[in-house]
Amino acid sequence: MKINLLLHSLSITKVISTIALLILILSGTHVFIFMTTTQSQSSNHDAIKSLTALRHEADSFINPNQLDRQQIQLTATEYSPLVANQLLQNKFFDVNQIHEANIELRFELIAIQQQLDQLSDQALTLKLKQLVSSIEYTINQYRTLIDKESSVIFVSQIIMFTFVALSALFLLFYCRHCIVRPLNRLEENVYSISNHHFNVDFIESNNEVGFLSTGLKSMSEELESLITAMQKKVFDKKTELETANESIQFLFTISQTLSTVKLTHPIIIEALNALATQTNLSKLCLELVNGVEIDSDYGCATRDSRSNKRIPIMINGEPFGYLNYIQATPMSENTSIIVSFSSLLARALYQEEYSLQEQKLLLMDERGVIARELHDSIAQALSFLKIQCAVLNRQIDADSEKNDVKESVSNIKEAVGDAYVQLRSLLSTFRLNISESDFKEAVLVMISQLQKQTTAKIQLGDFESNFQTHANQHIHLLQIIREAMVNAMKHANCSNIIVNCVIIDQKVIISIIDDGIGIKEKPGKDNHYGIEIMNQRAAELNAKLEIKNLPLGTEIKLIFEI
Question: Who contacts 364 (Cβ-Cβ below 8 Å, separation ≥6)?
Fold first, then answer.
């Protein structure tokens, strides 16, 4: 483990260059030893060759019968310098014995050369035998030296081969464990990174592969960070687009709903619920300036003023109402949806208001046409009959015996007068001005018109007008109130008439109270006719009409569900 850590902590180039340098030094040393030893061996072989030749010459001179002193002199003269020369060329190794042998051999050659003429044949032969023995000894010393030099060369070759083999094995092991495996690991890491798998283990070492691994790890982390950031941006953009698409789809659906159906309270409540669900509102309600409050199923936000937010609903530059809401999680996108919703609701309310006003105007135009037709035809005919009845009555007054005829004419006159009064009342009803779209304002306008026709004081009591009605319902309600006030003015002999309108449990309760003489159990024809008209209009409204006497006066109550 320590060796592995040591190898991974060393520089690859330094390890390889060090081993290469060692191999180079060892190779140089081996070459130097080989060249020096080879040269020495060559010189030694030459010396052995010369000594062998000298030995053969000496052997040839040993035969006493063939002693040729002159030839011996020439041979000694020829080989003496060679023996000295060989002695000087073998100083590289331990050649003391060879040195001594050469000295002795040279001395013997010189002695033979100097004493050649003095020595007898027997003594010369003995000297030659000693010389041969010395030559053999010297040749053996040279051969021993050659063997030592060969051993040195062999050992150096063994050492060189062993070192090269070990170096090769070390390099193989080192390359496999410190280069090949880490590079394969890096290759796998690169492949994983290319497939966006960044959770990989990198090699930690202090060599070049470790530095490369560290750089790749840093690049991987940066690339992962960039890809993660890019994916987050793509996801956020996708979420933003999906949210925008949902918002557009929601607003389109709300626009279709508000513009294609009649704008009633359930429709508005359904739209408010959809808005609260879409924008994650905890409370939401619609508050109109006329006092109408439409709550969603989530409750009204006006009850919690601390976190309540209001967005005005503008129609023609003027506030028509407010959206009151509380956001569970405030978001700018939700605020923009709420503002867009308020614009759609404002346009729908404006269109509904405009449509109702247009219907009322069309209905009033139609009733005006009917009133003119009645006035131009039936009213004039009744007026003419009334005048003729008066003329006939004066003619009959001259004849006192025709009392029965006079009574009949009087009845006709009374009936025509009643019919004329009823017609005028009907014309007044048809000509009722309801240009004001607000119910309370329309009632005030009607009271101001009727106040001119009576001394009784007509006033509003508790009056709420925060409800919506159709054009026909609007007119029926106004006509019932008018008929009740007209009856009180004509028959109740009252001093005060009070009109009340309250809303209880989605029901509109309208009451007209006077302080007159009350109503008879069997009302007269005129009063009976007015009550019948009010009952018919109440039936048109699916409302309930109640008439009862009070301790002082009469109360007419209309109960109408909205």
Answer: 432, 433, 434, 435
SS3 118: coil
**Measured between alpha carbons, how far is residue 348 from residues 71, 135, 256, 436, 562 in Å?**
152, 140, 10, 19, 20
Supply angle C-alpha 113, 115, 121, rounded to 5: 105
Q: Are 294 and 266 in contact (CB under 8 A)?
A: no
List, for residues 64-119, the tens digit of each pLDDT value. 555 666 676 777 666 666 654 444 344 446 667 777 777 777 777 777 777 766 76
Domain boundaries, the chain: 2-187, 241-352, 436-562
- Residue 500, H or E segment: strand 496-504
| 436-562 topology per CATH | Heat Shock Protein 90 (3.30.565)
Model pTM above 0.70? no
| Phi and psi at residue 445, to the nearest 5° | -60, -45
CATH number of this structure's domain 241-352, picked from the four choices 2.40.50.140, 3.30.450.40, 3.40.1050.10, 1.10.443.10: 3.30.450.40
Decide: residue 516, CB within 10 A, 0-12 exposed, 13-18 middle, 19+ buried. Answer: buried
Describe the strand order of the beta sheet including 318-327 as a list of residue ranges: 293-295, 281-288, 318-327, 309-315
